[in-house]
Specification:
The structure is a single chain. The longest helix is centred in the middle third of the chain and has 20 residues, at 203-222. α1 crosses α21 and α5 (105-117) packs across α20. This protein has 21 helices and 18 strands. By secondary structure, the chain is an alpha/beta fold. Strands 2-3-1-4-5 form a five-stranded parallel beta sheet. The protein has a four-stranded mixed beta sheet with strand order 16-15-14-17.
């Protein structure tokens, strides 16, 4: 494995793939969007469809799952995968352009690759909710994308928050403080500072204000006269509950795709997820808002007051649109919450000795590691890489893993004081996810192994039944599968999908992609789903994709690389990314592949 990125390699890659127009790399939203559009045109790819919510809990998971059979999916790539240090993060004060934000060559590269990843030969669906002050920037980066706007009456959103205890679990008090601070930034304060006062409101009032402001910002971004009109379809949550089949039919017509098949509601104890926060296996048939006495009124009053005040400082069309989107509260039956039996947040583990990692035959020519890579294993490597001078994140660009908060499904967290990566308690032996292909490839090199090819995955898993898929648990479970021992390959299919060593052939300038294969806790487990062709860019990640290692005659203990050597490799590539501002995305990605011997 070659662990150096030489100047000769950089020159060869640049010469092979050509140089883009330097004017397209000046760092503004418009220039980044223009470069991505040019790459998409060269590859014959279509822009994605945006599914934008007036807030969370508006049916976005239902929409995504309904369209999964006809469209590739991307779940909140901006809100979930960019840290507050990134100038595009919805959790930061978003500037009007990207100039002067400290967005480095690596950051621009990651952004171009991420946006290119959303385009494809067929339309992709990109779901984003709660963009707040990032709404106009995100829409500016995808100017050709039609938009689906998902709306819901605030009383329904509040009831969903109350049912899942989401205000506390998702730390919305801190979220209110952050958004309120953003509202007082120079760009926004004239119109929005008065709508989100820093007066420490009660949760119901704060939630109502946040719902109204997010709807206003989304309406404002979609009405931007400079950006121009884009095709738009509004889907009220209340409509899809009342007429699911009709809603899907209208959606298919807007997208020009085959109408998704409406499935019957799945029920029964065997289908009930232990943690149902992200599950979409059940369908609602009535509009009921279970809220403690007085809370529905508090939320409604806060929304009304915020919209009324907005009418005095914002364009009238923007305010009227937000009012329309947040209507429908009269369709709900508001009643006191019913008593619910306490349920464990995690399934009770089945006691059995944890097998040690070993390699077992699963397909000709390669030995499969019996266990998926766990959170504990990946945390150890991340800590060693950090000690070796290779931190995971550079100005909000995540190289190896996306460190999501625990409440949002993240299990790996960096302790800055101890300079050590830690795992959420109870998840140490669960499979690692939110890992990038780069992180997976480094784990393989550290273990003296490699990632499987897509063909190897399909051959090894043919005929196997998926375990832990389709939200049956609502999250991952241990890498050790009950009833199996050291000689078996655990979770051959299921728990998480896995990164592959290979990917689709693409034009030289295009960002490199790598396949993902298998089934995960949150995807279907049918062979059609397991064998579906899907791929992502090298720095992409998701909550359902992890790492399976394989070995052959060229990958043994003798091929292991130390963490310091791997840290040096990563840093050399980051330096190349920051210094080679005019290298095409494909050329820069291939420098990394060459250094990794992939």
């Amino acid at each position: 494995m070659n662990t150096r990125i030489s100047s000769d390699q950089r020159e060869a890659a640049s010469s092979l793939c050509g140089q883009p127009d330097s004017a397209q790399l000046d760092g503004t939203v418009a220039s980044v969007a223009a470069r991505v559009e040019r790459l998409a045109e060269q590859a014959g790819h279509q822009p994605p469809v945006l599914a934008l919510g007036v807030f969370e809990r508006v049916g976005s998971n239902w929409l995504s799952d309904s369209l999964r059979q006809v469209m590739p999916q991307h779940n909140e790539p901006f809100r979930q995968q960019l840290s507050r240090a990134h100038p595009l993060s919805p959790s930061d004060r978003v500037p009007p352009t990207l100039q002067g934000t400290g967005l480095t060559g690596l950051g621009r590269h990651q952004l171009v690759c991420a946006l290119s990843d959303l385009h494809g030969e067929q339309k992709h669906l990109v779901k984003e909710t709660n963009l707040f002050f990032a709404a106009d920037t995100v829409l500016g980066l995808l100017p050709q994308s039609p938009a689906i706007v998902l709306t819901r009456a605030p009383v329904g959103i509040a009831a969903s928050f109350a049912r899942g205890r989401l205000w506390d679990r998702w730390r919305y008090k801190d979220r209110y403080a952050q958004v309120s601070a953003s509202a007082r930034a120079p760009r926004w304060r004239a119109a929005f500072a008065g709508l989100l006062p820093a007066d420490d409101p009660d949760p119901s009032t704060a939630l109502g204000r946040l719902i109204a402001v997010n709807a206003l910002l989304l309406a404002r971004a979609l009405h931007d006269p400079v950006a121009g009109a884009r095709p738009r379809l509004v889907i009220p949550y209340e409509r899809h509950v009342a007429d699911r089949e009709g809603t899907l039919s209208g959606l298919a017509g807007f997208l020009d795709v085959t109408a998704p098949v409406t499935e019957e509601p799945r029920s029964g104890p065997e289908r009930a997820a232990v943690d149902a926060t992200f599950a979409t296996s059940g369908h609602k048939g009535e509009l009921v808002a279970e809220l403690p006495p007085g809370e529905a009124a508090l939320v409604g009053e806060a929304v009304a007051a915020t919209l009324d005040q907005a009418g005095q400082v914002l364009d009238g069309q923007v305010t009227r649109t937000a009012v329309e989107w947040l209507a429908g509260g009269d369709l709900y039956e508001v009643r006191a919450p019913a008593a619910r039996p306490a349920v464990p947040t995690r399934p009770v583990p089945v006691p059995h000795p944890a097998p040690q990692p070993a390699y077992r035959p699963a397909a000709p020519g390669a030995g499969w590691r019996n266990l998926l890579v766990s959170n504990a294993e990946l945390a150890e490597l991340l800590t060693l890489l950090h000690a070796g001078g290779a931190p995971n994140s550079r100005l909000g660009t995540h190289l190896l893993v996306c460190p999501m908060p625990h409440e949002r499904g993240g299990r790996l967290h960096f302790d800055a004081k101890q300079r050590q990566w830690r795992v959420s308690r109870g998840f140490e032996d669960h499979p690692a996810y939110w890992v990038t292909w780069v992180g997976a490839a480094l784990m393989a090199a550290w273990c003296g192994a490699r990632l499987p090819t897509r063909a190897e995955v399909l051959e090894a898993t043919s005929g196997a039944s998926a375990s832990n898929c389709e939200y049956v648990i609502g999250d991952t479970c241990s890498v050790a599968e009950p009833g199996l021992g050291r000689e078996d390959v655990h979770h051959l299919v299921g728990n998480v999908q896995v990164w592959c060593a290979d990917g689709p052939q693409q034009p030289c300038e295009q960002p490199v992609q790598r396949y993902m294969a298998g089934a995960a806790w949150n995807t279907p487990g049918t062979w059609e789903a397991v064998s579906a062709v899907r791929s992502r860019y090298l720095l992409g990640s998701s909550r359902g994709v992890g790492v399976r290692l394989v070995r052959d005659g060229h990958t043994t203990d003798a091929a292991q690389l130390g963490a310091w050597e791997l840290a040096n490799l990563v840093n050399r590539w980051v330096t190349a990314a920051d210094s080679d501002a005019h290298t095409t995305p494909g050329a820069l990605d291939r420098l990394l592949l060459d250094a990794l011997g992939s």
